[in-house]
Each structure stands twice: as C-alpha cells, then as structure tokens.
Amino acid sequence: MQFDFFPSRTLTLYLAKMFIARILAVLVMLVLVLLMLDLLSSSGEILAVEGNGQAELLTYAGLRIPQLVARFLPYSVLLATLIALVGLNQNSEVVAMKAAGLSAHQVLAPFLLTSLVVAGVSFAFNERVVTRATATLKAWEANEFGSIPETSNVRTNVYLTDGTDILSAAAVAGSGEAIAMRQVTWYRRSPEGAIVEQIRAPVATYAAPGWRLEDATRFEVASAGAEQIPEIVVAQGLTPEQVDLAQVDPDTVSFFALSGAIDRYEAAGRRTAELRAKWWHKLSGPLSAVLMPLLGSVAAFGLARSGQLFVRALIGMALGFAYFVVDNAALAMGNFGGYPPFLAAWAPFLLFFLVGETVLIRTEE
User: Fold this and answer.
1) Which residue stretches, if any, does this entry annotate as coiled coil (predicted)?
2) Cβ 63 vs Cβ 70: under 8 Å
3) Contact between residue 301 and residue 94 where contact means Cβ atoms under 8 Å apart
4) Most exposed: 38, 41, 82, 198, by fewest CB within 10 Å?
5) What is the pLDDT of residues 229-243, one digit of tens each?
C-alpha cells in the first residue's frame, strides 16, 4: 500500500465524491450571497434606464454568475478542503486511514486528483464562458445599461491618439474597416497640449480616412459655446490597424486569442509585460485549486490529541487566503514591470507549494 500513491479504489471514490459535493455546496452558497449583494448595488443603475425591467436584471445576473464562479472557485476548494478534513478528523477516519498504512500524501491523493480535474474544468469554463460574459457585461456597462451589444470582440474604455489630439470611446466592436465605436469623444488640442475643442457623438464609424461622428455635439473652449453637428470626420491619421492594437483586455479574450494579440503587440514594438503576465495567469489561476488541499491539510494532520482542531482549521484557512493575497500582489507587480511576467504568475504558486509540503511533513511528524 505504501508504494501506491492512491489508496484503494473504494476509498478514493468515497473521498472524491465527498470533496466534490462540498465544493459545489460552498460554491453555490458563495455565488448566491455575492450575487444578491451585487444586485442590490447595481439594480438601481439598471432600472434607471427607460425600458429596463426584470428581464434586464436576470440578464445582468446571468452575466455576473460566470465571473463569480471563476473568481471564487479556488476559495470554494479551500473551504471545502477544510470542511472535509475537519469532518474526517473529528470522526477519527484519518486515524483509521493512517492505521491502515496510508501516508499523509496518500490520504490527500483523492483530494489532489479532484482538484486537478476542477482546475481543468475551470480553465475550460473561463475560456468558453467567462471571457464572453465579461466582454458583454463590460460593453453593456460602457453603454450605461442601454441596449445590450450583440457584437463579440468588444473592448471598453479605449483611448487613441492622432498627433496631439485624442479620440476616446466607451466601447469598440469589430475589426478592420468594420470597426464601430460607441459613446465617442474627440479632443482637439493645441500644440501646447491644451484642449481647444471637444466633440461628443453616440457612434463613430470608419470614413476611409478618418472617423465619421454622427449626431455630434461640438463644444468650443474659447467661446464656451455648444452646437449640434449632423456629421463630421475627425482623426484622419488614425487607421483601423491602430485601433485594433489600441487596447486588449485580457479578461475578455481567450488564452489563444491573447497569445495572438501579444504577438501583434511585439511585432509593433509595444510593451507586452502586463499582457504576458495575464497570459501566464490564465494557467496558474485555475491551477491554484490544486494547492488548496495541500494548504488545508493542516486541519487533518498534526497533534491528534491536542484538541486544537479549530486552531488548525484557522491556520489552513490563513495559508489559503495568504496565497491569494500574495498572488494578487505579484500580479500587480508584474503589471507595473516590477516582476518578470512568468515570475509574477508562477512564483506564488511555487512558493506556497513548498510551504504546503513543509507544513504537511511537519504536522505529520
């Protein structure tokens, strides 16, 4: 038995089923509570738009649920680990498994295997569901919860420069000459950088060259006067290729699409450290679920007669949440260029893997 990483088939299935049930229960509880709090804070903005009602609230909930699932799935694995291991410890099942000749790693093997499956499902869910829901929700928020955009590949809060002038758009959809912008603002600036004119329009399309603003409102800074303009073409030096490279939101594109965007940025000589860190984190983020049984194992092993089960559970929880804090901090440092992208995404994972192994070995002794 000592030479087999997994215990018997019956025991492996028993522990795996118990672990999956607790992961789902904790995840559903967290998502429902957080969704209700989110709806309480956002429902006012959604219902303030004329024509919005219960259907729009349900649409918002449907778009937010994938984000909440992706964000809190690792937390659910951590809490499920603590709940499962505390129960096994209280019922002396861990003692029975160790008396049968199983090591601590063999006891945790079904949990680690289940977490690996959860990490794979999480990666696929992020790629197929979360990125699309995030892109749609950000575009909808940029449109101030008006009409829901139907176009995919939507980018939000895009800022472009044409010499000293600036063109900003709340949302950009499409690619090439079919690009369409919404909630557009054109700032004409003097050579010294002062804004001399501002033009706002709900829509902008490519005019080859330049960008056509329709139903626009012009504001002259010098005269402090405003006038309506049916149509005007601005930013004639701004090409669709520049718009395509203007901004990539890693949260709204898949792993392989982001890889292509990074290649285009590097070919254009643009900085890619932030995108590269997010690209690596699309792998290390879901894989963090595999760490949770290791960090929470202190709740199952240790001084069995000390009576400090609650304290050990708190230690396991602290280790798990410390990982998420360090992970977010490292990713932020990678975005600012303080860490190399690979190190920003993987250093917390490797560090806490070593911490978990150390704690597991020490507590087992």
Assistant:
1) none
2) no
3) yes
4) 41
5) 888 888 777 877 777
